[in-house]
Amino acid sequence: MENPARRASTPPTAATRKLWPGALALLAVPVLLLIVGPHLPAYPLRILDMILLYAILGLGLNIIVGYAGLLDLGYVAFYAIGAYSWALLASGQFDIHLPFALVLLIGASLAGIAGILLGIPVLRLRGDYLAIVTLGFGEIIRVLMNNLDGVTNGPQGIARIDEAHLFGWTLSTPDDFLYLLVAMLAVVFLFVWRIQESALGTALSAVREDQDAARGCGINTTRVKLVAFAFSAFIGGACGVVFAAMQRFVSPESFTFWESLVIVLVIVVGGLGNPFGALLGATLLILLPELLRAYADYRLLFYGMALVIIILARPRGLIARQFGPSWLMRRLGGGKC
Amino acid sequence: MLRFDHVTKRFGELAAIDDVTFEVKPGIITAVIGPNGAGKSTLVNMAAGSYGVTSGRILIGDTELQKLPKHRIAHAGLSRTYQNIRLFDGMSVVKNLEVALVPPKAGSLIANTFGLSGRAAAEERRARCHAVLERLGLAAYAERQAGSLAYGQQKLVELARAIVAEPRVLLLDEPAAGLNHGETEQLKQHILALRAPGLAMVLIEHDMKLIMSISDTIVVMNRGRVLAHGTAGEIRSNTEVQEAYLGQPGAIKDIEAAARGRRNRVRIREGEGLTWHQP
């Protein structure tokens, strides 16, 4: 047919827009962390590591919850799969001692596959139903780890996990992990930002906004959701491997429903669908309980109250969806938007 | 181009569509009219894959749409607008259009995400969206959030989203519902401008003035059946149609009242009801 739509008219590209101010602003955070981090005493440094880990988890979960709008309450399952991968493949448990880089890949891939396997039956569900099934999945994985005594050592967990070595570099102190986590955060951040800006992100947003209309526009909703699940689970798995290498001990206790909830809160408080939100959310949610440590008895009360206040005051999270990295680049880059 | 071949749709005992056969030809505008409950929207929803068919076939060329999952129907070249606007409210206008151009293959989606391929294709998709927006006079709103636009503009964005993938069949489900006089006139010009040799357009509308002025052919439906099929002139002089409901002065009022009732969500112009007299 005649194709008048293709009569070229160029979109308003940002020819006049500069990239470097935005790029510098984005680089500032990791650079700052790398400069300041190693000078911190051990305890704050360990907290910083946990913040980074939860930020990465938040970025990963955001693909499903923030971009596709599917509430996943069992994200910790993927984290657990990654953690147990390292615990089983690099410890005295079976006397297997694989290199860290390989297990990082294996653990993340296993989690990704688990994501797809979980996704195939449940992605027809939406809303509350999906939340309940994913919650169940999280619990199943935990209970499995708890009861597979012969493999996972049951509730006692697996200790004496190997020290991680990455290309000749030993990862043992909190500073070592700081470098690793900052690098991971950078990679994952760029990746999820890329998803948001790519055709996949467009498809996921459409699924979130109106699934039926998205299908009417030719989006294979099941397929894009599966891809999202796989990516998200992959990131969760990678975090699990790092967690196990950091703690050098895993037990089912680390993977309760509470953990899933914290990760969901990280992105809800920070701002659903916004990569910056995950960073801010993780900072708050990990830092707050530590700051409240002095009031041990009332800690959870204050924590809960703080969350309720944040959600009431900022229902879309601390940083709303549209103020993401692309917005920052446009804002700082000048030129026409 | 789009062919309904002995299509029947039952909801329980009720036959919403009863053995309907007709063809929508490319290059022209086919209006489907009839009182509420005649089955017009059911027909659109079946063609678009929202409802299954009880029996019969719906074809584009040799492709049997009723056998395809909903998203494949879009790829077969059919797109639609909705009676009640269904935009992706939280997304920008241009992103709304881009949804219709998302590559279907998971492989290319993943490759595109990693930035491995498709950069030029993505640019081209974007350019196509902007070209369509320009055509419908929406260029200024490209980066606005779709949900924040005025009602009439949202209707146009929906039209833009429906045509950006260059469909072979375009189903317009009450595009003028809730539009004011000027907006309807503008819409009419856009629809007329869309007429192209490769595009079959189906227009479901209650605005008889609009229908009579732009339709090349009209299908009249009543109680799930095709009552008549012909040009505006033929339909107006068709005694069967007149006898069925048009000839009775009361009937037209009934249609009008029903049309108002179902549009309680949208605006309808006062004092400008349905009429069979050409302007």
Structure description:
Chain A has 14 helices and four strands. The longest helix of chain A is centred in the last third of the chain and has 27 residues, at 221-247. Chain A starts with 19 loop residues before the first helix and ends with a helix. Chain A is mostly helical and 337 residues long. Chain B is 39% helix and 21% strand. In chain B, the strands form two sheets. A six-stranded mixed sheet of chain B has the order 6-7-8-3-9-10, sandwiched between helices. The two termini of chain B are 31 Å apart. Residues 263-279 of chain B have low confidence and may be disordered.
How far apart are the first and last residues' alpha carbons of chain B, in Å? 31 Å
Radius of gyration based on Cα positions of chain B: 19 Å
Specify the oligomeric state: heterodimer
Number of helices of chain B: 11
Overall form of chain A: globular
The whole-number mean of residue pLDDT values of chain B reads 83
**Strand content of the residues of chain A, in percent?**
under 5%
Query: Count the strands of chain B?
Result: 10
Largest sheet: spatial strand order of chain B: 6-7-8-3-9-10
Strand order of the largest sheet of chain A: 1-2
What amount of the residues of chain B lies in strands?
Answer: 15-25%
N/C terminus separation of chain A? 34 Å
User: How large is the count of helical segments of chain A?
Assistant: 14
Which term fits the overall shape of chain B?
globular
Interface with most residues: A-B, 42 and 59 residues
Helix content of chain A: 55-70%
What is the helix/strand order of chain B?
A: EEEHEEHEHHHHEHEHEEHHH
Strand segment count of chain A: 4
